[in-house]
Amino acid sequence: MASISVEPCTFALFGALGDLALRKLFPALYQLDRADLLHADTRVLALAREAGSVDEHLASIEAHLQEFVPAGQIEAPVLQRFLARLSYLHVDFLKAEDYQALAERVGSDSQLIAYFATPAAVYGGICENLDKAGLSARTRVVLEKPIGHDLESSRRVNDAVAQFFPENRVYRIDHYLGKETVQNLIALRFANSLFETQWNQNSISHVEITVAEKVGIEGRWGYFDKAGQLRDMIQNHLLQLLCLIAMDPPSDLSADSIRDEKVKVLKALAPIKGEGLSTQVVRGQYIAGYSEGKPVPGYLEEDNANAQSDTETFVALRADIRNWRWAGVPFYLRTGKRMPQKLSQIVIHFKETPHYIFAPEQRLQIGNKLIIRLQPDEGISLRVMTKEQGLDKGMQLRSGPLQLNFSDTWRSARIPDAYERLLLEVMRGNQNLFVRKDEIEYAWKWCDQLIAGWKQSGDAPKPYAAGSWGPMSSIALITRDGRSWYGDI
Ligand code: BG6
């Protein structure tokens, strides 16, 4: 039996035949079952409103499991056990009468987890119907992103949910918070005095956060075009990473202590406006180019594209945090589709020593760097300066890594997908890894002013070739400050 105790529940997945549920959520539940982390009495209830028979839908869920769980990890007895937990119910999410059947399936005393993998516009309606069916008092609701597309619309969604569910039963997903290395960032910062004493403007010169994707829009043009890279990635994933790096140490690991500290960072972000809109931010849109040596179309030539769109597929920006810890330490954020590789990493650049005593030509490499790699090859590496070995080398310096590669170090352990951890934490009733209402709202507030500035300027996004690191001006953004993006080739 697993060492973490998890209460039994009915896990109801609204939007069970959608892409997210089929690719990520069912495989994550299967993996939890495989790791013995689901209580024997836990049931999984797939809810959708698509036409088709129950048998067809269950067969489709099973087929997707076979496809999305890595080969070798489908174990026949586990699969059988998992499928025995699974049932399907046809529900029109906005029809109150359809929830009676749901209430019957849940039974009178089971804890219900209601995961909304549906458009946010129906979250309020689902909550109301859960309440009418007498289920709300024993339900935790899980909300997928995007929650709104600006501050006002996100408030509408949050307020609609709050009419029926108090904040301590609302779990807002940002799947980056479930990634192994993001968890490790907290351990690294707060379990090692070595880092924490250096974690400020006295020792750190700047921070880089890159989340690059090799893929383009992959059949999601309609959704993506209304959002763009700022709303899709910066408002949530990159700002969450920034908060975890920049926040003060919380007084304990409780959800609210951590979230209080993150909110302080969001409130301290300097708005980007006026001249900053042209010097501190770059919007880009990919044009045709190459990915893995093969020609690929530009954003405006993708399937179902509107050739007039000025939605950005790339953003680079310099964020400044107005507080004592980070005064004068820029955070450079960069994220885009159709980049040369899939890479998510944070690089903390430490300042040079106060007085330099080595040969002048070696000075450029000086400065320790802490590299936190989220994907691929999860791990943490600290680049330190040492002396080249050998009698004939004199005091020749070299920058080398002190390295902790998670898959090499813990060979036996599979690195779990972010959703596995997040689903488990909901079942355990632990809100640490979920985003509180005010965090979402402060993040929107900061992004909204940026979007308003873009709108006012009317500037089109800068083109960049698919397979490149973004528009040239994103390089100028950082070189203007006498720096460069770490490791770009
Ligand atoms: C999602 C975005 O939140 O994150 C997608 O909507 C993006 O556009 C995805 O592709 C990236 O997640 P990951 O875990 O693959 O880095």
UniProtKB/TrEMBL annotation:
GO terms for molecular function: glucose-6-phosphate dehydrogenase activity; NADP binding. Substrate binds at H175, K179, E213, D232, K337, K342. Its EC number is 1.1.1.49. Residues 13-184 form the Glucose-6-phosphate dehydrogenase NAD-binding domain. The active site is at H237. NADP(+) binds at R49, D92, F93, K145. Pfam families: G6PD_C, G6PD_N. It is an enzyme of class 1 (oxidoreductase). Pathway: Carbohydrate degradation; pentose phosphate pathway; D-ribulose 5-phosphate from D-glucose 6-phosphate (oxidative stage): step 1/3. GO terms for cellular component: cytosol. The keyword Nuclease does not apply. It catalyses: D-glucose 6-phosphate + NADP(+) = 6-phospho-D-glucono-1,5-lactone + NADPH + H(+). GO terms for biological process: glucose metabolic process; pentose-phosphate shunt, oxidative branch. The keyword Oxidoreductase applies. PROSITE patterns: G6P_DEHYDROGENASE. Keywords: Carbohydrate metabolism, Glucose metabolism, NADP, Oxidoreductase. Residues 187-485 form the Glucose-6-phosphate dehydrogenase C-terminal domain. Catalyzes the oxidation of glucose 6-phosphate to 6-phosphogluconolactone. PANTHER family: GLUCOSE-6-PHOSPHATE 1-DEHYDROGENASE (PTHR23429:SF0), GLUCOSE-6-PHOSPHATE 1-DEHYDROGENASE G6PD (PTHR23429). Belongs to the glucose-6-phosphate dehydrogenase family. This is Glucose-6-phosphate 1-dehydrogenase. It comes from Pseudomonas tructae. The lineage of its organism: Bacteria, Pseudomonadati, Pseudomonadota, Gammaproteobacteria, Pseudomonadales. The gene is zwf.
